[in-house]
Amino acid sequence: MNKPVRLLALAGSTRRDSFNKKLVRISAVGARKAGAEVTEIDLADLPMPIFDQDFESEEGMPDNAATFKLLLVDHDGFLISTPEYNGSVTAVLKNAIDWASRRTEGEKRSVAFAGKTAVLMAAAPGRLGGVQGLVHVRAILGYLKVLVLPEQRAISSAFKAFDEDGNLREEKDQATIEGLGRRLVEVTAKLRAEP
User: Fold this and answer.
1) What is the C-alpha to C-alpha distance for residues 93 and 15, in angstroms, rounded to an integer?
2) Phi and psi (nearest 5°) for 101?
3) Extents of the domains making up the chain
4) Dihedral (C-alpha) 171, 177, 178, 183: value to the nearest 10 degrees?
5) Domain 6-193 homologous superfamily, CATH
6) Nearest Cα residue to 103 out of 92, 114, 94, 118
7) Residue 32 to residue 103: CA distance in whole angstroms
8) Strand partners, 40
9) Average pLDDT value over all residues in the chain
10) DSSP 3-state assignment of 105?
11) Edge-to-edge strand order for the sheet containing 77-81?
12) pLDDT 10s per residue in the chain (195 long)?
């Protein structure tokens, strides 16, 4: 029997009431319905210093960065929801990726990323919903040899898009975000099945 697809779900925000934490949880529901095992993490629980090569040379990889990297290695794909900061990727997400991309002796380049899959989404108060930041996340992950699905979704006016239970008020949006999780499972399973 084939092992289930394992996905890591995270938001590029550490804010306690983050719209993107809510959004990625919805995609995780869709992924679980499609048979995946989903691990949800909060980058607020894994604080990391700003990447600095001198620090790395003197101190090595920080424990939280090593933990994050191992989580990436241990999963087949990633559900990522992130706001945009000034039209780009958030510092906390970029920094985590930078640390996880560092290789130790004997490791292949991009061991935490190469051959993995990802689907992207965003929620933001503005009318574009954070879509500009996803362009940069897609470029970064693509550089690291992650297959980023073309499907993505940005939720605008996020301050009024969610209900008190963290679901999207619009049924169509809720279905679309769950569908992103389901689609990532489908694609990842097919890729794993290829000889």
Assistant:
1) 13
2) -80, -10
3) 6-193
4) 140
5) Flavodoxin domain (3.40.50.360)
6) 114
7) 31
8) 9
9) 95
10) coil
11) 37-40, 6-11, 77-81, 117-123, 147-155
12) 579 999 999 999 999 999 999 999 999 999 999 999 999 999 999 999 999 999 999 999 999 999 999 999 999 999 999 999 999 999 999 999 999 999 887 787 789 999 999 999 999 998 888 999 999 999 999 999 999 999 999 999 999 999 999 999 999 999 999 999 999 999 999 998 866
Distance between CA 91 and CA 8 in Å, rounded?
Answer: 19
CB 41 within 8 A of CB 73: no
Residues whose CB is less than 8 angstroms from the CB of residue 120 and which lie 6 or more positions away in sequence, other chains included: 80, 81, 82, 134, 137, 138, 148, 149, 152
- What are 142's strand-pairing partners? none
- CA-to-CA distance for 124 and 83, rounded, in angstroms? 6
**pLDDT score for 4:** 96
Helix (H) or strand (E) holding 138: helix 131-143
